[in-house]
Design a protein that fits this description.
mainly alpha, three-stranded antiparallel β-sheet, two-stranded antiparallel sheet, binds iron/sulfur cluster
Length: 232
Amino acid sequence: MAPTITELYARFDRQADRWAARTGVSCPTGCGRCCETTVPPCSDAEARLIAHHLLDTHHERLAAILHRDPDVGAVPPCPFYEPTGDYHCTIYAVRPFFCRAFAFASSTDKTGQPAYRLCRHMPTPDSFAGSRVLPLRDANRPARTDSALPLPPGMVAFQTRIDGVAEGLSEPAPIDRAVRRALERILIARQYARDEALLEHGVLSGTDATGSPERDPDFTDPSPPVPGSRPA
Ligand code: SF4
């Protein structure tokens, strides 16, 4: 069976953590520069995971994301960034792959070879022996055969697998737009399921002149309201 998004995240995190422990690569304490300057891309499947998290935890950013103006472009900082929080990221457990991989994944250099460069805000760990780039090169030996350190997990390989957990709906989009789209779909599906259940139990009496289900005036719906919605 194909791995889920959370299984792929866990697999990447394990590999990246092992690599970071071995090399000593780490972000500066309290750094949030990538969140301040980026609105990360997010696939549909990733956005659904975040949307469920927001709904299930009654997250403080839920209403803001849901009612964000769709015409406003993706302008940093990331809408989930919290400058004063412990981790800065308010959705840390379900943050998208882009954020997990930032500065902890390898890409390719100009010649197409796997390579890794420290983020410019990261301190140079002792294991890099003064270099900011892996593989470490030895001028007397052919390039890329002399690295004393392993490369971190490959960005493209993991990204391809993450994108493979697709629902065939759309291309990755900036996180605010992708999550709002996912929230709208989930809330519509929940509303539909709720109306179906109410109809089944005879609480809704049929359809009115507009084709919408007609609510029994004596019925009080016990389920929690949709965030930001007006009472029915
Ligand atoms: S989702 Fe979280 S980690 Fe990613 S950019 Fe936004 S605040 Fe930062």
